[in-house]
Amino acid sequence: MKQLIARTLTSLLLVVVWLAGTAYAQSTTWVIKVNIPFEFNVGDKTFPAGDYSLAQPLQHFLVLRDSRGQAIASAFTEGIESAAPVAAPKLRFYSADGRHVLTEVWQQQESSGQRLFPARYRTNFAKHRSTEARETAEGSQP
Predict the structure, then answer these.
(1) 16 exposure class (CB count in 10 Å sphere: 0-12, 13-18, 19+)
(2) pTM of the prediction?
(3) pLDDT tens digit sequence for 68-115
């Protein structure tokens, strides 16, 4: 009888801990609303100037939404650090030849931000599969 009670309490405790972890993971989602006054790129897609929002639904993953809240682009990220927290949300762009590419996203009052992986990196990664992976993906004739 004592073992049954102990198992029940242990199971109940595990469920409570799991639910608490799930609630914490969901609470880390953040959204930044911004007006971008120029044409810009996220990955290999180009967007006109306008109102947008950036959300981080998962760690190391950003979603760009248009003014209606529709997801229009997404990108994988890596964490970066700053010596001091930023006073306001900040987006950084790499600009060359009149082209602006979103490269970093910083939240207000945070000393950590997100760096977007360049589209070129993702393309090169996809093009350079190992021979073993290529054979597995393409199959072979018997």
Answers:
(1) exposed
(2) 0.64
(3) 999 999 999 999 998 988 889 999 999 988 899 999 999 888 888 999
Count the neighbouring beta carbons within 10 Å of the beta carbon of residue 101.
18
Give the Cα separation of 117 and 97 in Å (integer).
Answer: 20
Residue 136, phi then psi, degrees to nearest 5: -65, -45
Token readout for 68 is 């209606």
132 Rama sector, left if φ>0, alpha if ψ -120 to 50, beta otherwise: alpha
The tens digit of pLDDT for each residue in 19-68 reads 444 444 444 588 999 999 999 999 889 999 999 999 999 999 999 999 99
Distance CA 31, CA 64 (A): 10
Residue with tokens 């044409």: 39
The span from the CA of 25 to the CA of 60, in Å, is 13
Domain ranges of the chain: 25-131
Distances 131 to 77, 120, 126 between C-alpha atoms, Å: 27, 21, 13
